Amino acid sequence: xxxxxxxxxxxxxxxxxxxxxxxxxxxxxxxxxxxxxxxxxxxxxxxxxxxxxxxxxxxxxxxxxxxxxxxxxxxxxxxxxxxxxxxxxxxxxxxxxxxxxxxxxxxxxxxxxxxxxxxxxxxxxxxxxxxxxxxxxxxxxxxxxxxxxxxxxxxxxxxxxxxxxxxxxxxxxxxxxxxxxxxxxxxxxxxxxxxxxxxxxxxxxxxxxxxxxxxxxxxxxxxxxxxxxxxxxxxxxxxxxxxxxxxxxxxxxxxxxxxxxxxxxx
Length: 266
Ligand SMILES: CCCCCCCC/C=C\CCCCCCCC(=O)N[C@@H](CO)[C@H](O)/C=C/CCCCCCCCCCCCC
Ligand SMILES: [Ca+2]
Ligand SMILES: [Zn+2]
Known about the structure:
Layout: H1 28-33, H2 36-47, H3 49-55, H4 60-79, H5 82-103, H6 116-133, H7 141-160, H8 166-191, H9 193-198, H10 204-231, E1 237-242, E2 251-256
Antiparallel strand pairs: 1-2
Zinc ion binds next to α4 and α10.
Cofactor: Zn(2+)
GO molecular function, one term: N-acylsphingosine amidohydrolase activity
Pfam family, one: Ceramidase
């Protein structure tokens, strides 16, 4: 049992050289880059609070769980232990489960599901089964998790096919662009390590951490905005960027322009 906590007990080892900067931290840059989770999560919790208050406070679970993903990611890269790998991957699975339960469009629910509560129960059941199955072939977990991004991309494509709103489309393209950059780094670190070692640049997995957190901030805000437009249209949701709306780079969030003024009564 103690073996699962041992350093390097995971079968996964990223391109970064082990113990290069510290004898206690296996992958130093990969560990430190996970700090981005602790920077972005509190900001997103703060920015999404008005939307969460109006829609459902459970929305906050997404970014609260992202803090745990950050903790487990740090622990995993610090030790490369089997326990670290499983905690890292299972926390991502549970963030996805929360996201699907909250935001998967009602109109695409399977016909036997009558409301969002039943849908959330179905997601919970599938997630518990997936959690148990993840121990069968742990090296396959990361690939399975990455497939969810493909499904999210497909769902966004279906939702935005007929959208002409410039701000929404801009956010969609930014989310997709960030994800493409992120997954290119992840794949390149996984499969192109000998090439990157020749260039003495083995930091792509750390860069992936930064890009995937940004992609999650962008894509989850877009999905939450589409959800708000359908579920709480009376609150007149709109998109803005923090810290300045007119800056090219910023964190997207939802403002509710109609709360308390135009709320429907029936
Ligand atoms: C209608 C559905 C709405 C769901 C929205 C919720 C989206 C957020 C989901 C997940 C958060 C991703 C957190 C990534 C943490 C990375 C930690 C890490 O690096 N782990 C690696 C090991 O250190 C491991 O190998 C990585 C495994 C793969 C993770 C795949 C995550 C899927 C990301 C989905 C992002 C959405 C982007 C959408 C693009 C338009
Ligand atoms: Ca390594
Ligand atoms: Zn990682």
